[in-house]
Amino acid sequence: MDIGTIRKMRRCFLAVLLAAAFVLGGCSAKDKTNTDDVVILYTNDVHCAVDDNIGYAGLAAYKKQCEQNTPYVALVDCGDAVQGDVIGTVSEGEYPAELMNRAGYDFAVLGNHEFDYGLEQLDRLMEISGAQYLGCNIRYTGKDEAAAFFSRLLPYKIVSYGNVKVAFIGVSAPESIVKSSPVYFCDESGNYVYDFCGESGVELYGCVQENVDACVKDGADYVVLLSHLGTDAASSPFTSLELIANTRGIDVVLDGHSHSEIPCDMVKNMDGENVLLSSTGAELVNIGRLTITANGDIQAGLIGAYSETDDEMSDCIASMKEKYEAELAKSVAASEVTLTTVSDSGVRLIRSRETNLGDFCADAYRAVSGADIALVNGGGIRADIPAGEITYEDILRVHPYGNTLCVAQATGQEILDALEMASRFCLSGEDDGKSAAGENGGFLQVSGLQYTIDTSVESTVETDAQGSFLSCGESRRVQDVMVLREDGSYTALMPDEVYTVASSNYLIKECGDGLNMFMDNELTADEGMMDYEVLMTYLTEELNGTVGEEYALPQGRIKVK
Q: CA 416 to CA 396: how far, in whole Å?
C-alpha cells in the first residue's frame, strides 16, 4: 500500500488515561506500541512547572518507558517553557533549559514568553539548548543582518524514523510582539525589525503553506506542525483552528498558548480533510502522546496522572532548588489576609475584574513612585500571596518577569484610551461555570482611579497588524472615570489635563499588550526598581511589614456591568 493511500485512511483514536495506563483501543501503551511505531511526546506552556504535577521527572520516566517499546521516540515542546516561575526568573531561563536538555527534547518552538528575557538571552538559551528550535514565520526585516538574532532557528526539520519521514514545522504567535515586550523587536529608532508574518491571517497561512509544500516536496510522509497559537477567539485570525482551516497538507497540529486541554480534536482543513489538533493544557498537568503506527494510523491523547519518576532528573531538580531556596525562603513581611487573583470558586479574575491583589500591586506602584495613577496589567500578576508570612519567593512569584518601574506624564485622554483598550474583551459574567470569561492579559488593575465598564456597549477599539492600539470610536464602554485627590475624594478625569502614571517598562515604554499610549511620553522615572522590589518597598516602608484588613476585599475601583 503506497503512502498516499495510507494517508487517506488515517484515523484518530481519543486516548485516555485509566489506572495510570495510556489506553488506546483497550490496550495499554506498552502492549499496543509496535517496534516500528513512531511516538512523539509533546508538552506546551510548562511555564517553569519543573516539579509540579507530572513534572520533568515524570516526563523523563515516561519517555524512557516509550523507548523500551520502540526506537522511534521524539520529544517536542510548543512554547512558553522557560518563564513563569522563580526557577526561570533567578536563572533567566537557564535552569529550565538545562532540565529540558536532560529530559531529551528534540524540537521546540518559541512561545511569547521565551522572549521575556530579551533577545540576547534568548539567543543564549537557544545556544545551550539540546533541542532544535523551529519557527517558519519569524523574520528579520532590518538592514543590519549581522545584528539579527534567530540565526539558530530553522523553519522546519524532516526526520527519518525507519522508513517513515516526519516533518516538524514551527510556528510562533504573531501576537508575541505585544504579548512579550515590543521593544525587543525594534531597532534603536523604535522601528520594528522583526516580523511574525502577522500583517494578516492570509500572510501567516501563506507562510505556513509554503513550508508545508516544501516539506512534502522534500519527501515528508507526515507533516506535524508545532505551534504556539492557541484557540482563543481573542487571538483571531492567528488561532490554530483558523490556520488549519486555511491550509492543506498538515496531518497534525500540536498547539500551545491558550492553555487548552485538547486530547484529540479533528478539524477540517481547506480541502475538507481532517487534521488532528491536540494540546496538553499547561504546567505539565498532562503529557501529550502522538503515535504514528506502522499501518499509517495516527493516535493521540493525553496522559494526566503518570506517577513514575526518573531518579536522575529528580536529583537534578533538587540540586537546582538548593541553589536558591535558602534565599527565597526568608520571611520579609506578613499579611493578615490572602491576596488573590481568583474568585471564591477558584476562577481566575485578575484579567477581567478588580481583585485585592491587583489593588495591592497597583497601590505599590503608585505609593513608591508618588504618581497620580498606577496601572498594572493583569497578565503580569502571576500568583497569590497567602495570609501569614510573606517570603521573598512569594513576592517573586507575583511578578516573575523582572520588569522595572517607570513613570510617564500622560494626558487624561491617553489614560482613557488605555482603559478602553484594556477593557475591550470584558463580559458581564465573571465565568462560564468553570473558566474565566472575557479574559485579557492587558486588563488593567488600577490605583488612583475609579470607573465603570459597561459591557452592553460594543468595543470600538481598532488595532494595527501587531495588535497595538490605533483608535477608538465615540462609543466607549469605559465610563465615569474618576481620579483620586489628595484629600481622599474623587473628581472627574479630564481628557486635556496631564497626570503622572506609574507602571512597568513593559507597559510604559514597550507597548505591552498593545498599550502604546505612553511610549513617546516624557518620563519622570525611567526603569528604576525591579517590579518585585516595588512590592517589597511598599510592604516594608509604606505598610511597615504588614498587609492589613484594608485589603481583605477589592476596594470597588472597577465596576463591571
A: 30
Beta strands 139-140; 194-195: pairing state: antiparallel
More confident residue, 18 or 224: 224
Q: Which helix (H) or strand (E) holds 29?
A: helix 29-32
445 forms bridges with which residues in the sheet?
376
For residue 80, tell me if it sits in a domain: yes
In this prediction, residue 181 has a pLDDT band, given cuts at 50, 70 and 90, of low
The rounded distance, in Å, linking the Cα atoms of 221 and 8 is 12
463 residue type, one letter = T
Enter the C-alpha cell of residue 415: 489614560
CB atoms within 10 A of CB 455: 16
Beta bridge partners of 484: 490
Q: Do residues 412 and 463 share a domain?
A: yes
Show the domain range for 251.
Answer: 3-22+50-321
**377, pLDDT greater than 50:** yes
pLDDT given at position 32: 63
d(CA 519, CA 516): 6
Show the CA angle centred on residue 330, arms to residues 329 and 335, nearest 5°: 100
377 - beta bridge partners? 444
- Asked, for residue 35, whether it belongs to a domain, the answer is no
Going by C-alpha positions, the residue among 408, 422, 411 that lies closest to residue 528 is 408
Helices (H) and strands (E) in the chain, counts: 15, 31
Whole-prediction pTM value?
0.72
Tally of domains within the chain:
2
Residues 506, 380 contacting (CB under 8 angstroms): yes
Across the strands, what pairs with 472? 461
pLDDT in tens, 533-543: 899 889 998 99
The answer to whether residue 27 is domain-embedded is no
Distance separating alpha carbons of residues 37 and 294, to the nearest angstrom: 5
d(CA 37, CA 34): 5
Residues 342, 489, single domain; the answer is yes
CATH number, position 227: 3.60.21.10
Give the Cα separation of 239 and 257 in Å (integer): 10
In the chain, the largest separation of any two C-alpha atoms, in whole Å, equals: 82
The string of pLDDT tens digits covering residues 69-106 is 999 999 999 999 998 777 887 788 999 999 999 999 99
Return the beta strands (E) in 131-174 as ranges.
Answer: 132-134, 139-140, 156-161, 164-172
- CB within 8 Å of 172: residues ≥ 6 apart: 79, 109, 110, 111, 112, 135, 137, 138, 196, 227, 228
Which pLDDT score is estimated for 326?
78
Instruction: For residue 15, give the nearest of 308, 265, 299 by alpha carbon.
Output: 299
C-alpha cell of 137? 514565520
Question: Are residues 139 and 279 both part of a single domain?
Answer: yes
Q: How many CA atoms lie within 13 A of 70 on its CB side?
A: 25
Cell numbers for 259 = 492553555
pLDDT of 141 above 50: yes
DSSP bridge partners of 522: none
How many Cβ atoms from other residues are within 10 Å of residue 54's Cβ?
A: 25
